[in-house]
Amino acid sequence: MIITNIDSVPGRKVVEHFGIVQGSTVRARHMGSDFAAGLKNMVGGELKGYTKLLEDARAEALERVKQQAQQLGANAIINVRFATSAISQGAAELMAYGTAIRVE
Amino acid sequence: MDFIIFLFLISLGFFVGGRVERKHYKDIAKREAELLDIPAVTSKELHNLDDVEEAQMVSANVVISLDYFKRFLAGLRNFFGGRIKAYETLLDRGRREAILRMKETAKLNGYDMIMNLRFETAGIGQVTSGRGSLGCFEVMVYGTAVKLRK
Amino acid sequence: MAKFTPKNLNDHANVNVSKISQPKEFVVLLSGLIGIMLVVYLVLGFTLEILVKHMPTKMDDALANVFPMDQFETPKNLKSARDSLQTLLDELVTLWPEANEQAYNINIVDEDQVNAFALPGRNIVVLRGLLDEVESENELAMVLAHELGHFANRDHLRGMGRGVVFLVLSVIFFGDNNPATEFASGAINMVSLKFSREQESASDRFALDLLHKKYGHVAGSTDFFNRVKDKHNIPGFFNFVSTHPIGNKRVEEIERLARESNYLYQEKQSLNDTIVAALKSDDDLEDAIEVEEIFVEIYQ
Fold first, then answer.
1. Which terminus has fewer CB within 10 Å in chain C: N or C?
2. Across all residues in chain B, what is the average pLDDT?
3. Strand order of the sheet with strand C123-127?
4. pLDDT tens-digit profile of B14-36?
5. How many domains does chain A have?
6. Quick one: pLDDT at residue C15?
7. Of B57, B126, B138, the CB nearest to A5
8. In what order do the strands lie in the sheet with A2-3?
């Protein structure tokens, strides 16, 4: 599955459009990483636990987009966008969406 | 007693947090020089797309937080208004770090450049409502990495 | 494709970061905050002082309805002791002209801790532990007069007002998660403790005068404080020393006041038999009645 965030797949010709595909996941922070983050908050710097958590969550959202595209018989997704929104305290929705296409 | 803890945290934040930041900036500068050969652009079009052999989206993220001293300072600034330098450096560091990570991924996979670079920034702290989160941000960057035909 | 010229930006000229010295900013802003806090605190204290002074007793009584006073009902086995305490209190109140012939109510709560509180609605609550410590009527009168002194100075209202209003203000301005709020409330606690000590000594002065009016001398005025002050290590929230800071200084201060007013020390009166009897029988019964911990430190 080729994924791009531009209007085309460079070097390939678009044969068919299938419309929008999207995937999302809602994640909450857990106590362990919260505690570590609380400690790290004193001195500042990167909160590796959260970075990993959000990275994994976004990978999952993107994986769901890919699954939708596969169901449509696409082999590429173009114009992918990400969106993040806080659902409640400590929980966030991570979303990805794009256009499923078939390229040569 | 509370006051002693407060003073301890403030000085811990100021000295350790300041050190962490200087070290990070040094690291960023070094890696930026190393990855200079992988350009990242915000344009969607290249003039000769035929040269592209392969394209794939790449992304990177980083969650970065303020130290106690800067958070206190930002809290004060929130009251008085004005430029919050603490957040400026935080976001500057976060964005540049994220770009570097994305470039590193692209380089590792043999890509030559990144097109249509986009940023996504979200505050994730204890409080994400009301007055906004206090000092904890996620910066995400993504784009389309392309391999040029040689 | 156009030619790409790799170039790096110089970090020393980072346009995204303001050129501000943070330690300097910290000092300036913090002194600004402290200044504002001080002004608000003074204005608040001033307004509160006026409010408290001119607040009609009716409103005080209305406050009593807000707080559940029936929590402090005297248990049956201590009823007779309560009645003798009430008699003693009434005698003290008649000697206090500013009381305007208003009745003050007393209740005993069956708790081992040594403390007494002045509560809204002209209510005094004495914990049984305090009665266990008391050895003469004079020192008991001193403690009751001390609580009356809190009413005379309206400390029971003042204590509630300032701290609460200030905390509310800082939460409104900074938000409850802001470290600046923590700082503000911490600073206020430090100031409030000092404030409380002044209230205590004002109450002591009042009590000493009342004691002199009652007995014609001030023997026993420091007995209770002397006995309790060495018991700092008694654990617990209900402890007298936790809400009434006692030190050698306080005892010395009372003695100095007595000297200044040329108060004499004569023979002390023994404790009323009903109180002694009630406490004895209580020890036998040992049916301690649990009291919910709704006391708040600010009540004193």
1. N
2. 84
3. C105-109, C123-127, C116-119
4. 999 889 999 999 999 999 999 98
5. 1
6. 81
7. B57
8. A2-3, A76-88, A91-103, A14-28
Q: What is the CATH number of the domain that holds A23?
A: 3.30.110.70
Nearest-CA distance A4 → chain B (Å) = 5
Condensed to tens digits (0 to 9), the pLDDT of residues C19-41 reads 878 888 889 988 988 888 788 87
- Top pLDDT among B50 and C14 is at C14
Question: What pLDDT shows up at residue C88?
Answer: 87
Domain boundaries, chain C: 23-299
Q: Rounded to a whole number, what is the distance in angstroms from the first to the last CA of chain A? A: 12
Altogether, the residues listed in chain A come to a count of: 104
User: How far is residue C163's CA from residue C187's CA, in Å, rounded to a whole number?
Assistant: 11
* Probe site for chain C from B72, B91, B112, B114 (most C CB atoms < 10 A): B72
Chain center to CA of C122:
15
Residues on chain C touching B85 (C-beta within 8 angstroms): 17-18, 20, 22, 25
Per DSSP, the residues of A48-60 read HHHHHHHHHHHHH
C17 interfacial to chain B (CB closer than 8 Å): yes
Report residue C168 as tokens: 């509310």
Confidence band for C294, pLDDT divided at 50, 70 and 90: very low
Between CA C260 and CA B25 the distance in angstroms is 70
Q: Which domain holds residue A64?
A: 2-103
> Alpha-carbon distance B78 to B75, whole Å?
5
> Do C137 and C271 contact (CB within 8 A), yes or no?
yes
The ipTM assigned to this model is: 0.81
Subunit contact A82:B140, Cβ cutoff 8 A: yes
Domains of chain B: 2-148 (3.30.110.70)
C164 confidence band (pLDDT: 50, 70, 90): low
Which pLDDT value is given to residue A38?
67
pTM for the model: 0.63
Closest CA to C123 of C179, C72, C54: C72
In 3D space, the residue among B55, B44, B38 whose CA is nearest the CA of residue B102 turns out to be B38
At position C89, the amino acid (one-letter code) is: L
Judged by CB atoms closer than 8 Å, whether chains meet at B61 and A58 is answered as yes
Token digits for C240?
């007298």
Residue written as token pair 């209003």: C165
Closest Cα to residue C297, out of C199, C179, C196?
Answer: C196
Whether C141 has a pLDDT exceeding 80, the answer reads yes
Q: How far apart are CA C262 and CA C217, in angstroms?
A: 9
Question: In chain B, which residues have their Cβ closer than 8 Å to the Cβ of A58?
Answer: 59, 61, 140
Please state, in angstroms and as integers, the Cα–Cα distance from residue C14 to each residue in B64, C19, C61, C79, C109, following that order: 19, 9, 65, 78, 68
Give the chain C residue nearest B37 (alpha carbons): C6
